Here is the input.
Amino acid sequence: MVAGRTLALRKTFALANENRSHVGLLKSARQLEFSFVAYDYRSQQNECIFLVTPNRSASALLFLIRRAAYHRKAHSLMNDTCMLPLSRRLKEATTTTHETLDQSIMSRNMFATTQGYRDFVLLQYRFHQHLDPLYRHHVLADIIPDLATRNRFSMIHDDLKDLGEPLPAYETPLPTQDASTAAGWLYVGEGSKLGAGFLIKLAQKIGFTSSFGARHLAPDPEGRGTSWKMFREAIDQTVKLDAELCIQGAQDAFAHVRKYLSHSENIQTLP
Here is the structure.
């Protein structure tokens, strides 16, 4: 009878390439309900395992095999994710949001006219007003090189003056004193400097440059790529930051930019 059931299971439960690991998992879990474990060694990959008990139906066995596979994959994925550098985890957690936001900005043709560009700089002002105190964060100053000099908020002030725009009403900074949450916000701000290399070319077409109206789009002195690499390496190498709080901070930062963008025509009066 065992041989017959093994043959039936061979046709039903051929789970390719991973089943050797499933067997090991089931053995290590000491699941006593399995009275017999047979291997099919005909494949170099050990592509099939057959789990046979006198008291379980084929459907019940299939569920247990799949459950074992799920837990193995989940455990593996968790380990792989936790081993990723913080900057990579931030990127993977925010890529879709970031791309959607970029598309929204470009779809509004904010670099087609002076008025559109005005709205863009006001958007930047609102966002960087929240970033401004984070560039003086005492914990992050010990982690991120030249943190204070990375701040572009004063440049945005000057750009608004060039545009003849009054500064928007002061808004109380968001509660991001926690270093990890603050690092997530700064990840968004520092990362935007890479995209600014493209945006400044669009600004130049309507008369704004790194010395007039588009100062905040200019690269850091060491260059865009080098500056970003230094920031990335700094947050990747420290043990002082909590990854989950960093990710939440970055997601919150993108959410606020989306909010400001959706009200760009009234951006000076947003609450």
